[in-house]
Amino acid sequence: MPSAPRRPVVPDDLRPHPDHRQQAVASAADPDLVEIGAQVGLRRYLAQLWEHREFALTVPLGQLQARNQDTMLGRAWYLLNPMLLIAIYYLIFQVILGIEGRRGVENFLPFLTVGVIVYGYTRSSVQSGASSVVRSRRLVRSLFFPRTILPLGVLIAQTTTYLYALGTMLVLVLLMGEQPSWRWLLLPVALAIQAVLNLGLALFAARFTFHFRDFSNLLPFVLRLGLYVSGVIIPINDQLVPQDPLRWLLQANPVYNVLEMNRQLVLGTSFEPRVWIVGTLWAAVLLVAGFVYFRRAEDRYSGV
Q1: 6 is a domain residue
Q2: Which domain holds residue 222?
Q3: Of 49, 286, 60, 67, which Cα lies nearest the Cα of 160?
Q4: Which of 34, 95, 147, 164 has its CA 20 to 30 A from that of 233?
Q5: Directed axis angle between helix 254-266 and helix 244-251, to 10°?
Q6: Which of 201, 118, 195 is nearest to 156 (CA)?
């Protein structure tokens, strides 16, 4: 009858000490310890975001400083890019097509300036946010931090850039004959609403790109379509869109409402509370929905 296999002899110095086992059990029971990649409660997750707030600031601001360092004009491109776009659209839609005075468009150049610069903030936030997780694969694989910091950091960087463009916009509309108004004091409110909206859209785009890498190639076309259906270049009114259902659908676009908020403040157009209510509701809904959608894949991003 074959003898039973002998158990290997473990030297005493390699045996787990009883105190070590007790410490392991105590550590496993510690509520402050969380397994890497495991989902945590919302309150704990928000606390982790706050704990990593410096990381959310230093990384994107460092990237901003490094951007355009190799170019002759450097940071001046933050101002030149929107100005060149304004010049191109003005050449096409006013000089060639003569849109001013038609389709309800008056004082076209200030209208276009506000539209291009404000929409550019949303476009750059969404486009940069879409690649935030994929582009930061080394950080995601090597460091533990709430992944929401990546789209949030992109938003901080784009908001910093937008502040340059916003100042340029105000100077340009003054040179175009617009008068300063007390409404300009409400621009930080419109900026906050747009920033919330942009973050929600960036969270959606970041997870889409994580799952479907081809989405990054499709996104520029989606954003270009948004340029035309959001009233950036020409207004969405009953002269341009006489069909009521289609016009109402286009005016329900969250980006359209953000643009109209800024035009009411900067250009002094008629104040419409509906625009502010709809825009604020859209921003809140998209932020909550985008955060929930992005966070559900928190444990998968390390496999990027």
Answers
A1: no
A2: 42-296
A3: 60
A4: 164
A5: 80
A6: 195
The answer to whether residues 210 and 304 touch, using CB atoms and an 8 Å cutoff, is yes
Looking at residue 106, its amino acid is E
**Residue 33 half-sphere exposure, CB side, CA atoms within 13 Å?**
7
Dmax (CA) of the chain: 105
**In whole angstroms, what is the distance from residue 202 CA to residue 205 CA?**
5
Residues composing the chain: 304
The token pair that represents 304 in the structure block: 């990027």
In a domain, 19, yes or no: no
Highest mean pLDDT pick, 60-74, 104-118, 135-149, 248-262: 248-262
- Span of 40-44, 95-99, 121-125, 283-287 with lowest mean pLDDT: 95-99
Provide the domain count of the chain.
1
- Which contiguous run of DSSP H or E holds residue 169? helix 149-175
pTM to 2 decimal places: 0.81
Task: Give the integer Cα–Cα distance in Å for 227 and 216.
Answer: 17
How far is residue 149's CA from residue 53's CA, in Å, rounded to a whole number? 8
CB-based burial, 45-74: b 16+ in 10 Å, e otherwise? eeebbeebeebbbebbeeebeeeeeeeeee
Q: Is residue 175 part of a domain?
A: yes
Best CA proximity match to 116, nearest among 226, 272, 251, 252: 226
Establish if 116 belongs to a structural domain: yes
At 126, list the tokens.
């969404």
C-alpha distance across the termini of the chain, in Å: 55
